[in-house]
Amino acid sequence: MHTITLIPGDGIGPEITQAVKDIFAAAQVPVQWEELNAGQTTFDQSGELLPQALLDSLERNKVGLKGPLTTPVGKGFRSINITLRQRFDLYQNVRPAITTEGIASRYSGIDLVLFRENTEGLYSGLEVYDERLGIADSISRITLEGCHKICYAAFAYAAKHGRKKVTLAHKANILKLAGSMMINACREVSREFPDIIFEDKIIDNMCMQLVNKPEQFDVIVTTNLFGDILSDLCAGLVGGLGVVSGANIGDTTAIFEAVHGSAPDIAGQGKANPTAMLRSGLMMLHHIGEAGYADRIEQALNATLKQKDKCTGDLGGKASTSEFAQAIIDNLA
Ligand code: NAI
Ligand code: MG
Questions:
Q1: Residue 319 neighbours by CB distance under 10 Å
Q2: I need a labelling partner for 282 at 20 to 30 A (CA). Which of 26, 105, 247, 300 fits?
Q3: Angstrom distance (rounded) from CA 241 to CA 314
């Protein structure tokens, strides 16, 4: 039995995490949940955005499944997601993008995984604003160690999953020093994986190629800001934010999350699509060595996606969140 920290989140978070809990229970997945919240919900209750009890739970269990969190708008509220990433050194942001029958997309045959460096670059929090001079500096700091670690993670994943190619996206033609450091780090790592093709592309060309011919990509690795943008672009290629999963992984701790937000416009109405959250849960099962359960649930999900009427409105169906979850349970082989 695995103990997992479950963060229901704000808005639609509780509805989609309930769907995942129900499906996991029906499939008799050997996990027990330690449920603790954060975000707007706990802020309203106790004035705490990220309660210590939740941090302690993640520290203990090393694995979390997280619903979307609302960070209150305004000065002094640091993004909870960024805080968690820094706190547990979750330096890999891993986002698969796969075209799936039953999920509308302009493309077919996409099966790629994006590795985004998750703690450095423009997200280091190094900002200086000189009001008098009207100058704002946002410092993008990357380290050689950080470059090595994310590139190694991408190649190790490729090797483990029988993937053929790793593409590095960068801007070394302009960012001469930082870009070159990333390329060199990745090239050095690539020598340890002679069976995997290594190529690099400049980020703007990369965007064009992804939109034009996404099937050519396999594993993509990049720095924080480029990865943030590319990962949403990739989500758009395969059906949007409601269906793609994500993971924040470090050497000791990992937090899995749907990449969409708390969707306040549909919260509490039973309209939310639980697919992204469920797929994040399945990534989590692979991570904790329960791939068999993940495969079985994935097959049930894929079967349900082909039954339009059993799906939620965003997928063209009429079912509620819980009806969709029940259909997945009914399809468990
Ligand atoms: P959003 O992703 O919550 O919503 C964008 C649109 O997509 C809305 O129309 C929403 O109804 C729809 N949508 C999102 N998820 C869906 C699902 N599972 N099923 C069906 N429809 C879905 O983005 P928005 O509106 O920009 O952000 C709302 C709040 O979420 C903000 O407070 C933001 O800070 C937070 N947020 C949190 C994230 C996280 O915790 N990982 C990520 C992104 C935003
Ligand atoms: Mg983003």
A1: 22
A2: 105
A3: 11
pLDDT in tens, 213-241: 999 999 999 999 999 999 999 999 999 98
CA of 322 to the centre of ligand 2 (A): 27
What secondary structure, in 3-state letters, does 109-140 show?
CCEEEEEEECCCECCCCCEEEECCCCEEEECC
Pairing of strands 254-258, 245-249: antiparallel
Asked if residues 85 and 119 have their Cβ atoms less than 8 Å apart, the reply is yes
Higher pLDDT, 259 or 26: 26
Look at strands 63-66 and 31-35 and give their pairing.
unpaired
Given the residues 89, 165, 228, 271, the one annotated as active site: 228
The single residue of 123, 152, 157, 293 carrying the catalytic annotation is 123
Q: Of 21-25, 74-78, 179-183, 206-210, which range is least confident?
A: 74-78
| Residue 332 CA, ligand 2 centroid: distance in Å | 32
Each residue of 27-82: pLDDT tens digit?
999 999 999 999 999 999 998 899 999 999 999 999 999 999 988 776 667 788 88
Query: Which domains does the chain possess?
Result: 1-91+244-333 (3.40.718.10), 106-237 (3.40.718.10)
pLDDT confidence of residue 75: 64
Q: Which residues contact 31 (CB under 8 A, 6 or more apart)?
A: 1, 2, 3, 4, 24, 288, 290
Q: Whose CA is nearest to atom 6 of ligand 1?
A: 263
Cα–Cα distance, 305 to 328 (Å, whole number): 9
pLDDT band at 124, cuts 50/70/90?
A: confident
> Is 123 tagged catalytic?
yes
